[in-house]
Amino acid sequence: MSASVSNAAAGDVERFDVARARPPFPLRRVILWVVILGVALDFGIIVANNPNFGWPVVAAYFFDTTVMEGLTITLGLTVIAMVIGVALGLILAIARMSQDRLASSLSNLFIWFFRGTPLLVQLIFWYNLSTLFPKISLAIPFGPTLISWNTNDIITPLTAAIVGLALNEAAYMAEIIRGGLLSVDKGQGETAAAFGMTRARALRRVIIPQAMRSIVPPTGNQLISMIKATSLVSVIAMADLLYSVQSIYNRTFEVIPMLMVAVIWYLLITSVLNVGQSAIERHYNRGERGDATKDEAPAKVQENA
User: Where does it localize (predicted)?
Assistant: First the structure.
């Protein structure tokens, strides 16, 4: 009798303790946050009050016509190069995964070359292509020339920038897309083939939509990298954002303030792209979260039972 009473008392104590249980106060974490915020606030005040940054100059030139024109060119180059790079990268990825030895070899060669050489060197090479080939001709192999153009008339700073950025991006996107395609279970393609789908239709309707979960995050990173990589086109006299601020500080000698203008614009653009990337990732992860919810539902029913 006494044993049962003591067990009941112990049970009451355990229920009482659990009912009043509270997580411990995270004192260390709070102290760490206070220290970090204090250091960040102090650094922000130092930067804001430092006259060498020239904040009045930054404010005066932030929406300057020259800067805005350079920003427009930067965004335009990014969009065009990414569209071409993704389209060509998809073709290269499919070719590399192909059973055709010629297609796979050519794709490997392209990716090897454009990933293995610096983007800056590629841009300079395309810009000076006329040194190697003064004329670009369309001709029948070992036959007559059908039409010919002066290379300098075709390879302008704009075309050199687009070609250089797009081809370099295609090499990286090919590997990203290939990794995404390989992440899809092979049974998906086999099932599509069993339903009579061609390889191209299975890729378009079944495999690629599922691979997007693995493709979107690194593609977003590549897009952000592309925004910053466009600054390299300033070496071939392409009037992008960096070239525009350089042209201003070459006249005014306000080097740091004008560079801060470019830095702030780059940060604003990448911040917007990060938000867009997060939204796209949530869109493609909806099915995964839905499956997890469905799996959890029976377990909750059993627990309630």
Answer: Cell inner membrane; Cell membrane
